[in-house]
Amino acid sequence: MTTGPGGQYTDTVTAGSGGAMTEEVGVITGDLTLTTSTRPDGRADVRVQYTGADEWYTLTGSPAAIPASGLHALHTRLVEAVRRGGQAVVPGA
Fold first, then answer.
1. What's this model's pTM, rounded to 2 decimal places?
2. N- to C-terminal Cα distance for the chain?
C-alpha cells in the first residue's frame, strides 16, 4: 500500500469472481489497481484500473463518505470487497 499527498491509498489486488463494477465500462476483472483519495469536499474518490493500464474508472458508489474510522479503513474495506468480487462496489452504494 502506498500513501500519496492529500490523503491517498493505492493497492494492487486480484479481483474475485465477478470482478468490480465501474460506472464507465461495467465489470472489470483480473489484476487491478485501486486508489482511494480524499476530495476537497471531504468525501473519497474511488478509482480502479487494470494494473499497468492508462485508463482509470470510477468504482460504482464513488464518491463515498469517509467513515469516522478514516480513509485508510475505507480503503481497506474496498480492497477486501474487490478481492471478494461479485461485482464489487463501494460498500453502502
1. 0.91
2. 24
